Amino acid sequence: MGKNEFLTPKAIANRIKAKGLQKLRWYCQMCQKQCRDENGFKCHCMSEGHQRQMQVFGQNPDRIVGGFSEEFERAFLDLMRRSHRFSRVAATVVYNEYIADRHHVHMNSTQWATLTEFVKHLGRTGQCKVEDTPKGWFITYVDRDSETLFKDRLKAKRHKADLADEERQERAIAHQIERAAAVSVAVAETPLASDPNNPTASHTDGAGSGTTGNPPAERSHFYSNPNPPRSLPNLVMRLRPQSPPPN
Q1: N or C: which end of the chain has fewer CB within 10 A?
Q2: Is pLDDT at 199 greater than 70 in this prediction?
Q3: Domain locations in the chain?
């Protein structure tokens, strides 16, 4: 059995030691290699493969750091969306869940030196609501998915329709109140039939027959006749029988 076989005690011990998280300062992000101690990290830095990766990094460092930063931010927000989508949680709790994966993008390879700077960045960009409390930084995920936005728009539309219906009902009630007030004022101003101050009110004649003061139809016709009868003397003379002429 060779020295570096899979089932040798040395290989098993190395896998046990490598299991779990190691020191962050002994991790090389360019080579994606985790070293167990300072001596191992020093030997890795002097290796030929690491030197080639550092030459690539030296050609465009801003682009590489920006790529690591975007990957770190995307993975962190994905974890927030899956595990703490609607809850307010401490930033350290989310970070500990994130680094549980051994192959995650380490923060020392990004543009943020500390977790506080990264949390402030999330607050400035509006991706999370951040709060600085005596117990530390707390973050709340801001859901911007298309499905959630669609539901929010539908909810806002229904709320607007409800407000329009309420406003329409209020206008109808106000209109009915105005009409009722106008009718009550008109009834109050209309005089009663027994009112003596009303010249048009009905009244009984002197005989108490209960007839109105207006003349009957024939009397009104007599008064309105445009051809009044002749004088009374002429009418009497015409009606008197004439005596025969003398012989």
Answers
A1: C
A2: no
A3: 18-59, 60-144, 154-187
Cβ atoms of 30 and 22 within 8 Å: the answer is no
The 10s digit of each residue's pLDDT in 66-102 is 888 998 999 898 888 888 888 889 998 998 888 887 7
**Global pTM value:** 0.49
Q: Note the pLDDT of residue 38.
A: 80
For residue 25, pLDDT beyond 50: yes
Nearest to 127 by CA among 68, 62, 76, 66: 76
